[in-house]
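User: I would dearly like some help making sense of a protein record. This is the protein in question:
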Amino acid sequence: MFRKLVWMTLIFSTGAFAADGVVNGYIGGLSNQASSNVGNVPGNRYNGSFEFDYYNKPVSTYEKESRFTFASQYNDQSLTQYSLQEAYVGGRLSEQNYWKVGRQILTWSDVDANWGFGKLNNRRNFDYFNPGQEGLIGLSLERQSSNGMKYRVFGSPIYAPELNPGLDINKGDKTITSRSQWGNPPAQDTTIPGGATVPIEYRVDYPSIGKVIYRYTVGANVGFENKHWKVDNFIIRKPENQISVKVDAKLNTIEQVVKANVRPQFYYHDVYGTTVKWRNKDVEVYGSGIAIRPNTFPDGDTQAFQYTEIKTEKRREDYVGGGISKTNDLYGIGLNYVARLSPFDRQKEQLAEDPRWNQAVNVTAYRALSSKVTVFGDVKYDMLTTDRLVMVKATYLMTKNFQLMAGANSIGTPTNGKSYWSPYTNNDSVYGALRYIF
């Protein structure tokens, strides 16, 4: 149902684009079978991917701007995922006033984008190592004053939730599974009092598409920008990017089965934050904070959690972060930090999802060894939970259009198995890939 909305946006948007923009992207395949010790999780063995990016940058004052960025991925479990990151057109209303309509990424919060929280924009979520971003669908207006002040508003009557990673709901078997290594489906069976193991049957109530998409978003941003400084202060009220669920679970003692009724629910939250950035040539320093205030705190059903492991409780979240980087054509290096300021107690918040990051540092680097060979590295470490994400890769440009890639991704989690990354600890990879670049 939600994928229909993506295709409707895609078809509407492509009809509005001019034919003289810049097009780039790739089509390629990746194999994660280089090592017998990793890559055996279903969905993580191999994949084919496609990315397409069209951008028409205005060269004259009143020429329209347009962008269309689309990606898809097909894995070894016959799962096809789609992502429409941006699809918009825009232009000037006057010398100081701009408009943009369609799916657009709001570049208002660096800490949200850099750490993959997904509170402002949607995430692509093909891969949790690189969650990426997808924009919100709506209309934005911007006014730029001669003194550097910027005033922006965004509004929309349409809601498009995150689509990936998806879950497979089988109405006949009454099961919920996933063909993605990043999917986290609920339990298929449970142990009841007395020690017996019984299956769980899921019945999902599907809302109509009208009840899903017709949900408003409204936000505003006041900022400042000149040659060296950029400041953003924003507040936005919007539906959460991920759909929540309410679960009612009961044990049928006669049939010896737990019957769980799953009802999608939609929660609004208020998100606000500040980002201050200083730039000078190839050096950039930023500080950023974001606060998330859910409007509703539904009562958690501890029995439902005990049987199904579906988490529904809401909580406020606060994060601050910062970083410094130096990038150019030859090399780049960056250091980032994020800290969770809001409380989280596993004993008291059993139904809430673990924070993605708590108190973490990130080091990134790349180096062009020649005109054809480039190496990359990215390490994230959470000092509170000891979660670790390590990514290294090298690319070799064989010809103008063909690129070879080899790399490794690794996840480390605490020994007690209690963190956001613990369910994905086996999603390591040692891979090789070939891409045709256009």
Notes: The longest helix spans residues 2-14. Residues 60 and 92 are 10 Å apart (CA to CA). Residues 5-16, 298-302 have pLDDT under 50 and may be disordered. The chain has four helices and 24 strands.
